[in-house]
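Hello support,

Our group uses your service weekly, and this is the first time we've seen a run hang past the timeout. The protein is BBC1/AIM3 cysteine proteinase-fold domain-containing protein. I'm not sure whether the cause is the sequence or the server load. Input pasted verbatim:
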Amino acid sequence: MDRPLSTWPITSPLRPLGLGPGTIHLGHLFPLHLSATRATRTPPHGDQGDPARRPISASSSLTSAFWGTVDFTTTSPEDPEQVTRHAVYLPPPKALGREELVEAHEIYGDTIALFAESFLGSGQCCARGECWDLASEGLKYFKDYDYIPKPIPSISRTHGHLIYEGKASMAGREMVGRWRGGDDRIRRGDIAEWRKVRIGIKGARPGSYYTLGDPDHTAVIVAECVPSSTPANGASLRPSDLGVIAVVEQSAGQMPQRREYDLSCFEEGEMWIYRPIGMQAYLSVPDITAVPPEGVRGLQQL
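Update from on-call engineer: The timeout came from a worker crash unrelated to the input. Re-ran successfully.
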């Protein structure tokens, strides 16, 4: 499935004939669960050595923002002495409290759920028919209403404020999970992400199960779900403690449908649940721009 890994607004005031100096400004949101590489120097036995590429891995499910500037001269673009680079980023935002997360639900949640439900029985799929499109297009729906703060868009498998992540293995005999933020429940309009998941079908013939994710699958949650024990930010919470999650989903070759998953039957794989939320409320920037908005706090140098 084709999922954009970042969003890139770019301004490039280059001269038409490619002569003289130029500047490229770029800014984007990016998910922090991707593996990345960066150039580092590896000094063998005290020698400076040659530049080498060493993998720097980041595994998470949060969203951050980055801005970079490259100044250069197009008469000698290959000359490193003529190129300067500057980059800043916002660290991943902290988990929000109950008031902020409930407010985000009240602004976006029901509209996103209704958007997904509007395709049920319509004979039509959303956009390309990929599972991810239901979430992505639901978040894009708000662009036509300038009085509603712009929500964080879907980027790869992130869709806003992470509120839960969990994992199961060994046919469900081992489960781990963690709650994030101050809300006490999953709400209508939250977005679920699954990765290589197998969930048994309760009440069906033994051995029956659903497979979610090849490797990833996205669904829009359409009913409130209250965990069996009251969650707290950072506290351990197994997927089975979440109970039954009702979603609207689609996939290539499958029309949108409503389905319920009993997470006490969660056997294998990983899952994440996101709360759609405004960019200003969560990242302290109102939109994705090519340069950092004036007055934004917390920027760090790369």
